[in-house]
Amino acid sequence: MPSTPYVINQTQARELLAQVDVPQILRKLFRDLAAGQAVQPAQQLVEFPQGAGDFINYLGVLAEDGVYGIKTSPYIVREQGPLVTAWTLLMSMQTGQPLMLCDAGELTTARTAATTAVAVDALAPLTANRLAIIGSGKVAQAHLHYVKGLRDWQSISLYSPSLSEDLETVSLLKTIEPRLTIAQSLEAAISDADVVMLCTSSAGPVIDPSSLSKPALITSISTNAPRAHEVPPQSLNDMQVFCDYRLTTPGSAGEMLIAGEQHGWDKSAIVGDLADLLSEKVQRPDYERHVFFRSIGLGLEDIALAHAIYRLHP
């Protein structure tokens, strides 16, 4: 074993990730979590002095694979705009030695989107055929990639306000999924949708679930803004709520924090998380009302993908 870890840059990580079945790795991780073979502590936020930024540490242990790790992501305040990076350190539980240091940018994008895909597969009605995506950046593109084959989609509609003049991104999206329709408005995109995936960096609500024409699955991700949320916090009271990990998500998800403080919502209302769903402790929901899935991103997801990459590395 080398005494110094492999260092994997962003380009190498992208190439290696393309060889990995990311959703399948995440499914195993959540089953391990349910079986007590994995440990997921809460995120750790550390602020820099004098308002110079902060960093978040995402920790995790995968006992069956014999590894633990830490993803650390700084938010560095600069005059020209904040700088955000992320690196994942993979460690051996047998030797205590570092195995790999990996640029986590590609890992973060892949695990964020693939976690949503795992949730869509576990939660969406088997008959769901109308998919809406809000957002068009790298994370939205990855969502499209991982979800496009999960159901017999008759309609895949995407809306992003920046797309009207961005022909390059439109072309890229169509390459990922030729059936994709670019909607001219948010309302047109979500009309009659069975699944709505919110893939934005918005700090505040993007849609109001009450405006949807029928009960749907709504998925939402995190961004770096304080208490960021993509649905109105009060809407949680009217939905069946699921999340990636019930022990940590309510302490970080913006709409859950605000709903608890201002709208009488309680985290005990969470129906289940991905560990519950994939171990079949919790059943697929009925759709008498909207179903909401919230992920904040787990250290375990980064560590599981880092381990998969490490196993591929010569």
From TrEMBL:
InterPro entries registered for this protein in UniProt: NAD(P)-bd_dom_sf, ODC_Mu_crystall, ODC_N
Pfam family name, one: OCD_Mu_crystall
PANTHER family registered for this protein in UniProt: KETIMINE REDUCTASE MU-CRYSTALLIN
Name the record gives this protein: Ornithine cyclodeaminase
